[in-house]
Design brief:
This protein is α+β, with helices and mostly antiparallel strands. Strands 5-6-10-9-8-7-11 form a seven-stranded mixed sheet, with no helix packed on it.
């Protein structure tokens, strides 16, 4: 648990790499390792018996040093994850894949070649996926943070293609729409 340099955000979570982006994007002013847990990475019902009470204590104190539930940590004690660009980082209930990375500049309607798990898929680049015909593979600027998204219009791309979090998409513009 700790507090960020930028925006002074309080944060709390397991030391398993989940805090990588937060620390990278916001920096760390103070960071502590909780010492009241028998299992440092996973605790059954942790939200009830560890997370909620600890977060409540964090909000109520004037400074985190006054909490007696952990010790001050060095930043190199915090586990980090290196997630390659193109990695699926989230799949929503509709089978839409949120992808780490950024899209190259493309024109609406451009055909995009996507290689994933040994499969070759052709998708259409668009800004609004529901404007395209059903069962069209699409690559578009996402609504989650700034992550691009890959999906199937009114279909479930992740189920159809057996995609999972951690799979990596590689894409290239096959042909640029001239419109």
């Amino acid at each position: 648990y700790g507090i960020t340099k930028k925006k002074k955000l309080l944060f709390f979570g397991p030391n398993n790499g989940v805090l990588t982006w937060l620390i990278k994007d916001f920096g760390v002013e103070e960071i502590y390792i909780s010492e009241n847990r028998s299992d440092k990475e996973y605790l059954p019902f942790g939200g009830k018996i560890d997370y909620a009470p600890t977060i409540a204590k964090m909000v109520l104190v004037e400074n985190l040093k006054s909490l007696t539930i952990g010790r001050e940590a060095k930043i190199d004690e915090i586990k980090t994850l290196e997630i390659p660009n193109g990695s699926i980082v989230h799949i929503d209930n509709f089978g839409l894949c949120k992808i780490k990375g950024s899209l190259p500049l493309m024109k609406e309607g451009s055909r995009v070649r996507i290689d994933i798990n040994g499969k070759l898929i052709y998708a259409t680049f668009c800004k609004r996926m529901m404007s395209l015909p059903d069962n069209t593979y699409v690559l578009y600027p996402g609504s989650s943070l700034t992550f691009p998204e890959f999906g199937l219009v009114r279909g479930n791309a992740s189920k159809l293609l057996d995609l999972n979090i951690g799979d990596v998409l590689n894409w290239s513009i096959e042909n640029e729409n001239k419109n």
